[in-house]
Automatic annotation (TrEMBL):
Signal peptide residue numbers: 1-18
UniProt membrane topology term: Lipid-anchor
Organism, scientific name: Alkalibacillus salilacus
Top-rank taxon, per record: Bacteria
Keyword Signal: yes
InterPro entries membership: PBP_domain, Phos-bd, Phosphate_ABC_transporter
Region (Disordered): 25-51
A Pfam cross-reference name: PBP_like_2
PANTHER family per UniProt: PERIPLASMIC PHOSPHATE BINDING COMPONENT OF PHOSPHATE ABC TRANSPORTER, PHOSPHATE-BINDING PROTEIN PSTS
Official protein name in the record: Phosphate-binding protein
Keywords tagged on the record: Cell membrane, Lipoprotein, Membrane, Palmitate, Phosphate transport, Signal, Transport
Biased composition (Low complexity): 25-47
Function of the protein: Involved in the system for phosphate transport across the cytoplasmic membrane.
Main location (coarse class): membrane
Length: 323
């Protein structure tokens, strides 16, 4: 009797072991699925990417960040607008991963970054044509030379009215609207047009290009300058002024004339500056890779001019070398 009970007990035990083991292999499959889910979770990148700087570069980086975040929901990208100079201040303080600039970095900014132990990489992201604009009712300014721009905008100049520039133009006081002193556009204009001269003291300054647009659209005698994208966005309400280049030709900014260099000397590259250490962050690296894959297309969608594919591939090589 005892032997029969022992045999029955062993039989039940074997049945239970077989049931727990799922001899059909389903246990192994479940384990594989679990590993796959864990692997997929590990591959999902999350984190923050902090960007600030130029209002001119902003439309490109805003477009890139919006497209990027639609497919990378776990990465948060913030794009601020403090002007090129203001952006570099934050970059120097280690507050941002990427700094947008519509001018190249200054020597004093390089020195400050070095003092703070921040290595960086410069990337030219697109091309811009700094656009000089007047009110849509202004039908007398058909072109300007760089020398005339200098006379109009320089504080040391006696020019205050349109007739001071050309006696055939109205005897009306010119109203000036300029990017602020933290703007790379301001710096570029000062370097190329004003030289050692100071800008008009009564010029209304703003880091927000939309404020400049509103200033000119609201004043028949207004004049301003800003990035090509802001002109395109508001071209129905503004007149762009053709600028006489080195060949003596009056040229309007366009994608063709900016890329060819015909619109000079007001064509210029735009930059992003990347903190090398930030590239170790997968979120920043993924964002930069996406930026370089799409910057050319998105730059043209928002009104700027992209570089060739080779240019962006070379920039990607720089980023990859930092990993």
């Amino acid at each position: 009797m005892q032997k029969k009970m022992l045999s029955l007990f062993m039989l039940v035990a074997l049945i239970l072991i077989a049931a727990c083991g799922n001899g059909d292999g389903s246990d192994n499959g479940s384990s594989e699925n679990s590993n796959e889910n864990t692997s997929e979770a590990a591959e999902t990148t999350s984190g923050d990417v902090a960007i600030d700087g130029s209002s001119t570069v902003f439309p490109i980086m805003e477009a890139v960040s919006e497209e990027f975040q639609s497919s990378h929901e776990d990465i948060r990208v913030t794009v601020g607008v403090s002007g090129s100079g203001g952006g570099f201040e934050k970059f120097i303080n280690g507050e941002t991963d990427i700094s947008n600039a519509s001018r190249s970095i200054k020597e004093e900014e390089k020195s400050a970054l070095e003092e703070n132990g921040i290595d960086f990489t410069e990337i030219e992201i697109a091309l811009d044509g700094l656009s000089v604009v007047v009110n849509e009712e202004n039908d007398w300014v058909d072109e300007l030379t760089i020398e005339q721009l200098k006379q109009i905008w320089s504080e040391s100049s006696d020019v205050t009215t349109w007739s001071d520039v050309n006696e055939e133009w109205p005897d009306e006081e010119i109203e000036f609207f300029s990017p602020g002193t933290d703007s790379g556009t301001y710096d570029y204009f000062s370097e190329v047009v004003l030289g050692e001269n100071q800008i008009k003291r009564d010029a209304a300054l703003s880091e927000d290009d939309n404020v400049l647009v509103n200033g000119v659209t609201g004043d028949q005698n207004g004049i301003a300058y800003f990035g090509y994208a802001y002109y395109l966005e508001n071209k129905e309400d503004l007149n762009v002024v053709p600028i006489v280049n080195g060949d003596g030709e009056a040229v309007e900014p366009s994608q063709v004339t900016i890329q060819s260099g015909e619109y000079e000397p007001l064509s210029r590259p735009m930059y992003i500056y990347v903190a090398n250490e930030s590239v170790q962050n997968d979120a920043v690296y993924d964002f930069l890779t996406y930026t370089l894959d799409n910057a050319g297309t998105l730059a043209e969608e928002v009104g700027y001019v992209g570089f060739t594919e080779d240019h962006y591939q070379e920039a990607q090589g720089k980023i990859d070398s930092l990993r």
